[in-house]
Each structure stands twice: as C-alpha cells, then as structure tokens.
Amino acid sequence: MASPAAEPLAQLLATPVAALPGIGPRRAVALEAAFGAEARLADLLVTLPSRIDRLEALAPLDDLPSEAVVIAFTPTPPWRDWGRFGAVLDGKVDARPIRLRWFRRPPQSLARRLAAPGPHLLLAKLDADECGRWRADHPKPIRAVELGQRRVRYSGLDGRLARTLGELVRTVVARWPDEGTCAALPTTAGALAILHGVAEGDAEAARQRLAIEEWRAFRLEHAAARAALGRTTRPIRAGGRLADALIRALPFAPTPSQVAAHAAIRADVGRGERMRRLVNGDVGSGKTLVAALAAADVIEAGRQVALMAPSEALARQHADTLDRWLRPLGVEVALLVGTVPKAGRSNLHQALQDGRIHLLVGTHALFEAPVPFRDLGLLVIDEQHRFGVRQRLALAAKGTDAHVLSLSATPIPRSLAMALRGDLEVSHLEARPGTGGNVVTRAVPNRRVDQVVERLLGAIDRGERAFWVTASIDGTGHDAGALARFEALRTLRPKAVGLVHGRMQAAQRDAALTAFRTGQTSLLVATTIVEVGIDVPDASIIVIEAAERFGLAQLHQLRGRVGRAGQPASCLLLHTTPLAPGQHRRLDLLRRCHDGLKLAEADLAWRGEGDRLGWRQAGVAAFRFVDWGKDEARLRALTLDDPTPGGCGRFDPRWLFRPQSTVAGGLVAG
Fold it and tell me: How many Cβ atoms sit within 10 Å of the Cβ of residue 465?
C-alpha cells in the first residue's frame, strides 16, 4: 500500500477486498462471502471479531477459571460414543480427571492428534458436572508457538483468513494519519487495533471512540441529504377556512395535543424553510387527523399533498378516511397503489398534473418517475421508519420545495427522539382520555391454549371479532405459526377465519383484510403485518402467541388493534413456561401499563438502543458501536463542527462507516 501522502485515507479505506495486498482470488471469494460482494477494506475494519482468545502460558489450575484457558491434556483412550453423533474422551490435566465432549464427532485430524499419548495443548472453557468432575466441550487445539499470543476469530472465516485480516488491520493502523491526542480515549486507529485484538488496551474506551465516529457519520450523511434537497421554500399561509370546516364536520373535538401539533405545523410551513416535523403518537392519539388538518391548509393555499403508506391496505384505509372527511369540503382525494391498472394510472397522472387531484395517497408506487405533481407542497410519510432515506428523498424531490411531515405510531421516548435528531421537530400526541383502559391484558401459559381457543370461538359465536397474531408464518419452537394456526382454527369454524401474512400477494392480503373489516370473517389469523394502521373498531379480542418473543412496544401496538371504539376488550399473551426473568418483567409491565411512552422508556432502560430495542421494525438503524444507554451524554455534546471533545484530530467518518439506508424508529424526515 502507498503511504497516506500518496494515497489518501479515503481511497485506502474504499479499496475493494479483491484489490487488497495478500488477497488472491480464492481468499477474495471467501472474504466477499463473509462481508458482502461489494465489501471494502472499511467494511472489514468495522466488523469486529466474534471471539478473541488470549492464549496465556500454562499455569496450574486450582479452581475452575472463568474464561477459556490453555490446558495440557493427557488422554486416556479409548474414545466413546456420546448420543447418536457425539463423542467423549477422558483424560487428565494437572493430574486431575477431565472429560472432553463433542456434540458432533471431532474432525479426523484432531482425533488422530489426540490418539497420541500427549500431553496436547488445547484451548478449553472448563466447567464441572453434577459430581464435581471437570469437563470441556469442543476444545480447540493450539500450537506451542501460539502461547502468549491472541487467537482472533471472525464469523464465517477460517483461521488462515482470520490471520490475514489481522495483518490487514495492522497494516492500516500503522499507516493511519496522525489524529492527534484525545483525552481518555484512543485514536480511531488505536481503537480499531484494540477491538481487533492486535493491540492491548481498554476495549470499552475503544468502543466509545468508534461510537463517536459512527455517530458523526450518521449525522453527516443526513445533513448532506437534507442539504441536497435545500432548505428554502415558499411559505404556505392559509386562512384556516378549510381546516376549520373539517373540525366542525367531525363528530368529536380534537384533543389539545392535536390542536397544538396542527398549530406547530401551520407555523412551520408559514416560514421560508422546509418543515421537517415528526408527529409521534400512541395508539388512538389521532395522527391521521393532524395530517388531514395540515393537508387542508396546504390545499387551501393552492398546492398539492401526497401521503405515503408502507402497505396497500394501510394506503386504502387512509384514502377512505381522508376522502370521507375532505370530499364534502371540495377536496379531491385519489389513491395510487401497485394494483391500479395502466389505463387508470394514466388518467390519474393527467389529473394530478392538471391539479384536479388535491391529495394523492399511495404506497411505493409514488416513487415512480412518471408520477407528476403540478405543485407538491406537503409530503406526509406514515410509519416512515419502514422506508429508507433514499426512498423518502426520491419522493420529496418530486416537489422542489415540499414540506415533510412524518407520522409514527412507534412510541419513542422524547429524550431519544430529540437526541437522535436535534434538528428534527417532534410533536407528541397524547392519547384520548380513557384510551386503553378498556382493554384487559392477561398473560396465559401456552399449555392452556385449548381453553383459549374454546373461549375465543364462543366469543365469535356471540358476534365478537378477534385477531390471533403469531410471531412467524411457518412456526418455530412453541410458536405454531400463522399457517398452522389458521388451518387448526379453520377446521373448527370453516367460514369465520381469515389469514393474512407477508408472503401473500397484495390482492390476497387486501381481500382478507376487507373480509375481516366488513364482517365476512370474524377471526383474523395474522403475523405482525397487522401491527399498525389496521382499524377495525369492532374488534374486541386479540391473542398474541409466543408473546415473550415480542418487544414491549410491539406488544403495545398489537394490543391497540382492539377496543378502538371504547368497548370492553381483551388482550391474551400466550407464552412459554418458564419465563426468563426479563420476559416475565416485560409481560407483567404490559399487563399493568397502557401508556406507550412509558413502555418505550422502560424498553430503552432495560434493553438498550438499536437492534436490541423491542420496537425494532424493518428500518431501525443498525449501529455497530453506538449504545445509546451508555453514550447519550457524550453524543448529545457533539456537533458536526467540533466532533470530539479534548482536541482529537478529524477525518470524515463516512470513509469508514457506510451511510445507513434506513434510520431509527421514525426519527428522520428526509
């Protein structure tokens, strides 16, 4: 590799795997299989080892060590079978009897090696059986020359490739430009060296340093995306005639938080800057009405509105609701989804371009290049965490100065929302008084599933409507799966049970949802596809199978599918037994609490940020190093201009971290 002076760091980190020194065609194929076909050197650097074993020199073992250690094992043949596929070999370590176990018979090379008298150097995690005899499962052979070294393992790579990757890390670290010093934290290069096991150091401090750089990359990427769209726009100033008429026509009064959110949106669009606001509301808080009021102001000012939903069923539901509210006021609402025929789509495009359509509701079909708006003034994105940043930008670009309003039913703690996106305005909607209190939540062990089915069918026979939600389509472990559960229930009530899941064609899903919504079926078996946006006010029972596999907020969202008309309702959480302490704590809190924001705060406190959150959807940011529970204070203090306290040097962290295609919990508005 050339020196950084001749080859900038950005070019070095962008080097494809196949072009790296010491990587021939065969190794390149293996690395690309492990890291991706378009893997760069940077991708290898930010993928940490699955395990680092420190091969300390042999020491007498008086007590069971807490970590894997090197042992000198002397076998006492013969080998013996263990179960159908396993094998055991007894022997001694420091004159102490020990048994080695393999759940599948060891490789022939290891078997031949251990056939010799020994002693043999092995890396083993020791424990004791019920009689106090030491044992070790799947010990790994090592060589005498490895004593005192580290053995680094990466998921999907054999030992030789792992050593090659370690050499690459050493090479990059040695040639990394000087970043200066940083109080209490290593440099970026030093952090990479520590976490890849090529240098000694504080692993937590190294993670913190890379968390800073990952956070900077996240913020810089979205700052660049926003800048590409521009911030200035034409102010939208409406007298409020259309919005006031909508409020008067409603059979209910908006809540104070809805009024406040609408006022904030009206003030935002009246300025000369593009609005980027997130309306976050719990189940039943009325986000759709806020969007309708905002749309009314924009339409009154002579501009158009687009509302994008993640599914065709949800788009149709929004179109029906908005059409019912706004058409009597002279607003033309249209629907554009993938199943609209070509002829109808052509007519819709023409009406949209002429300005005869004021509000267009749709799904991903809105991204299509030919969809022509005459003057798009407002883009509303529902459940926007299900769309990638690029998708949202593609739609926002259809209006050169369109405002962006995001809606999210995912309960987001205010502290997390504001810290993740300090430049994103957030309006929180309070649930209507009494919402959720009419739903009784019970945790039921799955051994009582037959009783649950019996009572559920009795309720259906009395005219009630119910959901049965499974954690998967095909079933795993104690979860029967949607397909099997549907077949079992359909044999008991052939005409009353419907099915909806993610592998069905859109037309099939819509037909099943329509049949349930209109009362043709009384029980809908579904996966979490019904988690948000499915509004069947008459539904009064929901059974959630394998409830311990769901996060708190997701369970809360599912519970919000019932009792929406204020009628008494039930949520039954079927779970395996015994529950782990953390699982029991989650289900017990859900049983007692109906406040989605409090549940999300508890989830954040108990389980941390990112992939570990229970409210993960398809678009949650997959941070590798950022741990919001540990890093909040430090990351709050950072700015893009002064990224690291203590005088650390700078480099563009996007050279190291690829831009994320999706973002956390509905927190980015394009």
Answer: 22
Confidence at residue 619, expressed as pLDDT on a 0 to 100 scale: 32
Give 107-143 as a DSSP string.
PHHHHHHHTSS--EEEEE-EEE-TTS-EEEES-EE--
Provide the pLDDT for residue 229: 55
Taking alpha carbons only, the member of 587, 579, 580, 583 closest to residue 559 is: 587
CA 15 – CA 3 distance, rounded (Å):
14
Residue 408 β-bridge partners: 280
Provide the 3-class DSSP secondary structure of residue 262. helix
pLDDT per position as a tens digit, 131-155: 778 888 888 888 877 776 777 777 7
56-146, CATH topology level: OB fold (Dihydrolipoamide Acetyltransferase, E2P) (2.40.50)
Domain spans of the chain? 56-146, 241-429, 439-593
Domains 241-429 and 439-593 fall in the same CATH topology: yes
CATH number for region 241-429 = 3.40.50.300
Annotate 205-218 with b (16+ C-beta within 10 A) or e (fewer): ebbbbbbbbbbbbb
Q: Higher pLDDT residue, 590 or 295?
A: 295
Q: Which two tokens stand for residue 132?
A: 């106090």
Q: What's this model's pTM, rounded to 2 decimal places?
A: 0.61
Please state which of the four CATH numbers 2.60.120.280, 3.40.50.300, 3.20.20.140, 3.60.15.10 is assigned to the domain occupying 439-593. 3.40.50.300
- Burial code of 550-578, b = ≥16 C-beta within 10 A, e = fewer? bbbbbbbbbbbbbbbeeeebbbbbbbbee
Distance in angstroms (rounded) separating the CA atoms of residues 167 and 22: 9
Q: Which has more confidence, 645 or 14?
A: 14
User: How many other CB atoms sit within 10 Å of the CB of residue 659?
Assistant: 14
